User: What shape does this take?
Amino acid sequence: MMKYLIAVMISILGVNSAAYAEVIHQEKSLYRNIFVEDSGDLRCLKFSVKRATSNQSCIYKSDPNKMVFSYTKLIFSGLLLNPKPSKILIVGLGGGTLSNTFNQLLPTAKIDNVEIDPAVVKVAKDYFGFKENSQVSNTEQDARIFIKRAGLKKQQYDWIILDAYNGDYIPEHLMTQEFLQEVKNLLSADGVLSANTFSLSKLYNAESATYQSVFGDFYNVRFNTTGNRIILYSNAGKPSKQVLSERADQLAPVLIDYGVDIYRVLRHMKIEQDWPSNTRLLTDQYSPANLLK
Assistant: This one.
């Protein structure tokens, strides 16, 4: 599964990273081995857990604003549901690419990042240009604890992005029905959720059913050429096709500079259910992620 995804990524990037990659930084953190590799103009953050190594974040050194991965482009579908979020939560920092981009696009928006690994935060700042400022902050904490405490404080977000990977896949305690309910409680009245997941994993059905049990119907956003899909939901419901088209027209000239074809993204937003209705849900008591991934 992971080998397939890496092969897809390499194919998409059009480079042979294995042949030309130069490791410019490596360290062992509390959670994984961290590598920063350069392959020509491409710089990637990689996590190695057990025997698996996976790309977590990549930038073009000559154009850091341009999105590299398809999944990061798909995440911009959230702006079609809420074009002007004023408070954003990003779970999983990686190289900080999304945080930096949203800070440029939405300079008045407050952006909270959550990253459990202090070493990742340092690497994001040193090698990927991640910046904190008066509008952007990062909290070094397990996302489950951050979400729980934010709920107790009655905090609300207009856009929550779940993109936390431990190097292999999403930590199982961040996939359960109980966790997702806590996430939903943080969404404002027109709040949007974007969750980065895999579409080829054996977890697909269980993840889909679990998200539906909490959020109801959602958009499946994915390109046919990649193994990632974005689960997209809005508390304000689904806009009409006309509204989505008008918002795409407004976003297109801005997002093209970031390598995002928002019209293509819009064409790949689907709402049909493609998993069995009797799929068992993931809960804090039943989450066999290691067996299904």
In short: The chain is about 35% helix and 25% strand. The two ends are 8 Å apart (CA to CA). The CA atoms of residues 72 and 98 lie 8 Å apart. The longest helix spans residues 241-255.
